[in-house]
Structure formats: C-alpha cells, structure tokens
Design goal:
By secondary structure, the protein is of the alpha/beta class. The chain has two domains: 104 residues, 2-Layer Sandwich (Alpha-Beta Plaits), CATH 3.30.70; 95 residues, ABC-type transport auxiliary lipoprotein component (Rossmann fold). The protein is built from seven helices and eleven strands. Strands 7, 8, 9, 10 and 11 form a five-stranded mixed β-sheet that branches. Strand 10 and strand 11 form a beta hairpin. The longest helix has 21 residues. The radius of gyration is 19 Å and the shape is globular. The chain starts with 6 loop residues before the first helix and ends with a helix. About 4% of the residues have low confidence.
Amino acid sequence: MVEFSSALDAVECSINIQRELDAYNAQAKQQKNIYLRIGIHVGDVVQKENDIYGDGVNISSRLEPLADPGGICISEDVARQVQNKISVPIEKMDPTELKNISLPVETYQIKFYAKPNVAKQKPDNNRLAVLPFQNISPDPDTDYFSDGLTEELTMQLAHIKELKVVSRTTSMQYKGVNKSMVEIGNELKARFILEGSIRRHKDELRITAKSTNLSRICNP
C-alpha cells in the first residue's frame, strides 16, 4: 500500500512499475516471472501508527483483485483526474460490486499489460480449465453453491467433444491460490481458462463469468 499526493502520480508510478516488470519478465526464467495487480483510488485517508486507514484504502484494496495480472484497475474518480494526461488508454470495465463497499464504484482499467514470455508455453489448443468460482458474498455458506456451480459447469463443458476439459479435482486445487492466468494455464497445459464469481444477497443471486484465451494474452 502506497500513498501519493495526486492521482496522476499514483497512475504514472503504477505504469512504470508494470513496464519495469514487463522488461524483467522478458529476461527472466518463466518460473521467476512476476505479475502484479494494481488497484488505485483517490480519497481521504487516516494515518495511525505508521499505517493508513479509511474508505480510500478499503476501495483501492477491493479494486486490486479486479485487475488482470500485469494490469491496473482504477476507480472513476481516478479516471476523471488522469484522463488525457497519460500515454495509455483507459477503458471502462463491466459493472461489479465491491465486497463490503456499500456505495457503487465505477471501475476502469488502464490498457497496459505485461507480455508474458510464452516461448516455453505449449498449451493444448482445445484444452479448457474451469477455475473454482469465487464467493464474494458476505455469507461463507455460499461456498457450497459456488463449488457446486464449478462442478456442474465442468461436467457440462466436458460433453462438448471439441473440448478437452481439465478435471474438477485438478482445477479445484487452485481455489484461493494467488497465481496468474498464464501460470495456471502453463501448469494445466490449457489454452482457455473460465473463471467467475458469485454474490448472493437474500433472494438475489449474481453470477459473473469470464473466459480467457491465453494465446491472445501471450502472443505479441
């Protein structure tokens, strides 16, 4: 967690960090590659005993997981302050709810991505992995539902003869694991990754899903 005097300083620093890591990853062995997710928000903070607190801190910590590995996620307040002031484009993301944040927050991504070194990556062209869907509900019991949905999706996709689907048992090993899509794809030898989240509130259920074609991420 780093505090800056301006949103522009924070964004420019984050872009420089990702570019430096991109250069490092291009030279390092694949198992030594580093991919960071960065989340940025602007707001008041409270300093106490060499630490900072406040809604600004909470929101930025919720934005970070929304970023792609090697990517940067920012709030609308940040996007408004840096628009037309940085050399890379900004793109609005799909609406999402931030865990334990009551007010809605519009999210944007800075379209800068590290390019993983894929010379050693040889995924099966038709191999797909369904990662455990993340429970972002305050109720931990929803974990049972998210695990069940993951299993059902895996079974249904396995019926498509054109696909080679990684078994549920293998994919479930990645529940709660902090690894990039590229790392997981390499380990599973999968070209496609399906991931998502579940949020349940009373009688309402929200499911989001995202598929990633690793060949598009990895090819320059």
